[in-house]
Every structure is written in structure tokens, then in C-alpha cells.
Amino acid sequence: xxxxxxxxxxxxxxxxxxxxxxxxxxxxxxxxxxxxxxxxxxxxxxxxxxxxxxxxxxxxxxxxxxxxxxxxxxxxxxxxxxxxxxxxxxxxxxxxxxxxxxxxxxxxxxxxxxxxxxxxxxxxxxxxxxxxxxxxxxxxxxxxxxxxxxxxxxxxxxxxxxxxxxxxxxxxxxxxxxxxxxxxxxxxxxxxxxxxxxxxxxxxxxxxxxxxxxxxxxxxxxxxxxxxxxxxxxxxxxxxxxxxxxxxxxxxxxxxxxxxxxxxxxxxxxxxxxxxxxxxxxxxxxxxxxxxxxxxxxxxxxxxxxxxxxxxxxxxxxxxxxxxxxxxxxxxxxxxxxxxxxxxxxxxxxxxxxxxxxxxxxxxxxxxxxxxxxxxxxxxxxxxxxxxxxxxxxxxxxxxxxxxxxxxxxxxxxxxxxxxxxxxxxxxxxxxxxxx
Length: 436
Fold this sequence. Notes:
6-stranded mixed beta sheet
């Protein structure tokens, strides 16, 4: 069968998009978003911050309400913003909390008392607006929306300021007319053909994600409490007590996510700018590749494919939604990539993604927290099952529920539900979290 001809324009789009959407981040990505907006405001103000207000969407609030913050523990919105104001280093992007000096924590706590926050509706799910006043009477306003590091407005004393190109990069990458493709314009066959064309030197930037995510997984195992979810999850399933790639993939993924959600100070590599997505996607691929002696290039191609599958799903269900993105997008993507590594046909990978979507339809996000490790690894375990089911001709009939013959249409159905019926669900979750 002749190889599919490569569309060079699509290839360039895919390559640039993967580079844009896989970046290091410290702590929950929504934490980085709030801190980044605050640090940009602080950099343009000459005096000390005297007061500030943070406006965030319900989706951002949901993911920072009960999350562990590196060096600060479980602290909330105001402390996160105060950290950004104190750090004053936007060059670090979403990983700027790496620059938080422990000696500054007292200062952060003091400033947090002069910061308020509000949850605002009728904005993009990814939304944060900072309004800060300094001791000299200057006022700065910074808005980040649509993407976690996409700054759309900087105002100093009622005058607009030019936005640094670094914080417009993502918007430019996905909106230039000569590179613009919607998810439905890129088929599964296109993706596999494109990733198969990437060289080792082209994909060398993905190696950093492998090392970062492995480091936090090893940290999580070393520092995991005997009463932690990681130990309980692994020890509760007899089949996982054997030394196997599936056991180690689950153990390392669970350990990494639990550590990150508890406030570990190690950065991670994101996928679609989500840290948990990045951990969920990269770690199982690396473990599989180690156990099966896959060439490094093949492993990196699988990671590249996974990043694109995450993007396609998230473009449909939304950057943030009431769905658990790590389950619906990242788990589905890594299972698709593992099918690629096992040399499944395109039709089998299509069936594999449908199987996974069938099992995870309706799994909700009730906030970023340590127990995300359990939810994600339960979905991964199901995904490993679907890898074997496909071998035995297991597939979902296209008339079953939201599943369609073509997995892209299945993903579109998930997006339809996310965008039309899930906002009320998310608001209900936020109301519950605010009472805690």
C-alpha cells in the first residue's frame, strides 16, 4: 500500500502546535495563570502593591480552590496572586513559581490580606483579570484568556501597553491564516503520516518533557505516604502487584499526579498547557518504550501524536470544561499513542479511541486535587483493557450512545455535550466547592 503523501503545510502546523502546547509548568496550570497575570502587573508598577483584585472564571476557581501550591500548601486564590506580585519574573512564564524564594513567604502572606477575588460568569473558561494599585497611586490591569499564557490586555493608568510577543505566541501560532486548521481538517491518517515523518533532531525538544515528568514521578514514589492514594491504588489490584509495564505506568503516573497536586516544587511538562495532561500522556508512553526497547525516535513520535490527540479533543470539549480533561482527553490520547506503538492499524486505533470514549463519557472534573491521581489511573486501567479488547475485535457499534463510526465524530459529540449542557453542571460543582 503506497504511503500517504505528506501535506507540508499541515506538517508545519502540527509541528509548531506541538512546540507551543508543550511547555514546563510548576504546580497546577491555573495557579501559573493567576501568578503570571499578577507578576506582569507587578513588573509595570513602580511602587509596592497596596491592593489588588483578581477576577477569574468558575472553571479557574474550581481548579485552584483546593490545590496544593509549591511552598505554600493549600492556600487559595489570594496567596497565589500575592506570590506572582512578589516574584516579578514573567520570563519564567507558567513555571514562574519555581522562582518563589522561601524567605519571601511571610511577605506573600502579608500581601495576600490586601487582595480580594471574585468569580465572574460570561467570560471564557480560561480567564483571569488582575486589577492592582501600587503605593504611588499607579494602576495596572492585566487580562489572560482563552489560553493559559495568552495575554490579551495590559493597561497602565488607563493607557494600553504593548503585549510582549512571548505572550501572544500561542494565539499567533493557531490563528495565522496560512497555517489555520480546524481539528476536523486533520484526519487520524494525516496525524500518523505526519508524526512518522518527524526526525529525531526535530523532536529533540520533547526529551525535556520525558526527563521532567520522570523526575516528579520518582519524587512521588520516594515521598509517597503509606496512606496515600498511590500506594492504596496499586495494592488494591492484585493484577498490578506483578512487575509489568502496566503496573509501573500506573504507579509512576499516580505518584507524579499526587505529588504535583499536593504542592511538589518540581516542574512538569504540559500537554495542551495542562500539567496533569502532560503527566498522563508522557509517562505511560515512556514506560512502554522502556519495557519494549522502543527506539527513542519511535517513543518521541508517539508523544507527538498524543499531544495532537489531546489538542483535537480539547478543541472540541473546551480548554476547561465540566469534563475531566485528563480522563477524556489525555487518557484517550495516550491509549491512542500506545496503539500506535503496538503498530495497530489506523482503523484499530480509531476503534481504540472509541472504546475509551465509551467508557469515560460523563466523567466530570470536580476540581484539581490530589485525588485526581485515582480518577486518572482508574481511567488508564480501563484504557489498558481497551488495548487488549481491540486485539480481540472489540469495538463499539456506531449506534451506541454518543459513539460514531469515525472517532472524530465521537469527539465532536463530546464537544457538543460539553458546550451545550455542562455549564450548569460546572456551576453546581463550584457552588459545592465554595461551601467547603
